[in-house]
Design brief:
The protein has 366 residues and is α/β, with parallel strands linked by helices. The protein is built from 14 helices and 13 strands.
Length: 366
């Protein structure tokens, strides 16, 4: 790790270390959002607005962070979110992230835009899920599903909020493209290689427009559930009506997410949408929160608002850039330490007790 990250006390320390070592365009690709980045900023404002009402007199001396998440045991209610092209951050790419997830005892959702073959990432031995966008080449979609099943993936997570990649101004200004030697190895040749960057154009946006279909629908989700024996999750839900439709189509997990502020810049913060989604689907589906998670306290906030757990995005990449697998493992370790302390201070002995904590958030009370 770099000297800044040698003794990180919080994930923000690893963010600083990552920024120090990454090329500017790669940093912007990871850190940036769409449009004016208002949705990106709103995720943090909304999370910071949540106050918990701690319990006292509980007599507990420790907190158990263990739970079940995405169908597997997890050391804490955290899974690593699907993110593209980890090799931009570290040469070991998704292999390093998978090693860290295995060591930390948490699931990893592997993006179909991994720069390494899906089977190679699964061979590390972490509990892995496959993330998919709906591909124009449905033959390749079926092939990928078969590869995932054969490699031991535990489920499939479909991202629903990307009919088109939103205009990300940092990438447009940088004419962003992938560094040499990194590419979408899991997609078909029909989508072509990622083009070279040029001023005012995101090469990744051009490539995804060629590879991904904009016409994802609940009918296609139902079709997908019939095309694989693996459990299916849907990511990118904010409206409870969409959560209801997803469950009706066969989704077992609903991920409340605004894509980390990288898609619709006018979207509500994910955590603001969470309570209504939980109320709508109740016990019919697992509900996870994605977008803006930066600490163990944020994880506890999500649990108190009804989520079964969270997906952790950018902080995992910060750890990867700062120190490879040990850097990611450090991030996950910090979150577990922070979550355990927050639970103990809030009087919650375990994840079930955490879900019973009361919150105060801009007039919302439970």
């Amino acid at each position: 790790m770099t000297s800044v990250a040698a003794r990180p006390l919080c994930v923000a320390d690893l963010e600083q270390a990552a920024r120090a070592v990454l090329p500017g365009p790669v940093w912007d690709f990871v850190a940036g959002g769409s449009g004016t980045e208002s949705a990106l900023a709103e995720n943090r404002r909304a999370l910071d607005a949540i106050a918990l009402v701690p319990r006292v007199g509980t007599g507990i001396a420790s907190a158990d962070t263990g739970t079940g998440l995405l169908g597997v045991p997890s050391a804490m209610p955290v899974a690593v979110a699907p993110m593209a092209y980890h090799q931009m951050l570290h040469p070991d790419g998704e292999l390093a992230t998978a090693r860290a997830a295995r060591a930390a005892g948490v699931p990893l959702v592997v993006s179909v835009l991994s720069g390494l073959p899906l089977a190679d990432v699964a061979a590390v031995g972490a509990d892995v899920w496959l993330q998919l966008y709906w591909l124009r080449d449905e033959g390749r979609l079926d092939e990928i599903l078969g590869i995932a099943a054969a490699a031991g993936y535990s489920g499939v997570m479909v991202t629903a909020d990307t009919p088109v990649m939103a205009r990300r101004l940092r990438d447009l200004r940088n004419g962003f493209t992938l560094p040499p030697g990194i590419g979408p190895v899991n997609l078909s040749s029909s989508s072509g290689p990622v083009p070279q960057g040029r001023a005012g154009v995101s090469a990744l946006a051009e490539h995804t427009a060629a590879a991904f279909s904009p016409s994802f629908s609940w009918a296609l989700l139902e079709q997908l559930c019939g095309r694989t024996s693996l459990p299916v999750a849907i990511k990118g839900v904010l409206d409870p009506r969409d959560a209801r439709a997803a469950v009706a189509a066969g989704a077992r997990t609903v991920v409340v997410s605004n894509h980390g502020g990288r898609q619709f810049d006018g979207a509500v913060a994910a955590v603001t949408a969470l309570p209504e989604v939980v109320e709508e689907v109740g016990d019919e589906a697992e509900v996870l929160l994605d977008s803006g998670i930066r600490s163990g306290l944020d994880v506890l906030r999500a649990l108190a608002l009804g989520a079964s757990g969270v997906l952790l995005g950018r902080p995992a990449l910060w750890g990867l850039a700062a120190g490879g697998a040990p850097g990611v493992e450090r991030v996950l370790g910090l979150l577990r330490t922070e979550l355990s302390e927050a639970m103990l201070l809030a009087g919650a002995a375990d994840v079930t007790a955490a879900a019973r904590l009361r919150t105060r958030i801009r007039g919302y009370d439970r």
